[in-house]
Amino acid sequence: MARNETKPAETPVPAEKEEKEITWLRSLEEKVHAAAGRLRELREENATLRQRIDELEERLAAASTPGEATAWVEEREEIRGRVERLVEHLAELGEL
Fold this sequence. Notes:
Elements: H1 15-62, H2 66-95
């Protein structure tokens, strides 16, 4: 730049435009914080569910003795029979 030339003045950013940019950034920050919080909740829920799965698998393994397995089969058959009778009853009612 030559000695006699003056430096062009910087044009100020209108306050309205600056406020929009800040609002946009604030909105983005809120969304990021909300997403991070939800991820944290999901990780905790996932850990709880994995622990519950482990407990249930242990119970299932412990319940897999022959006597208990037979009891489960008998109970299942009893429930199946009751459900079949209910379905038949409902089918009869539907035919009326």
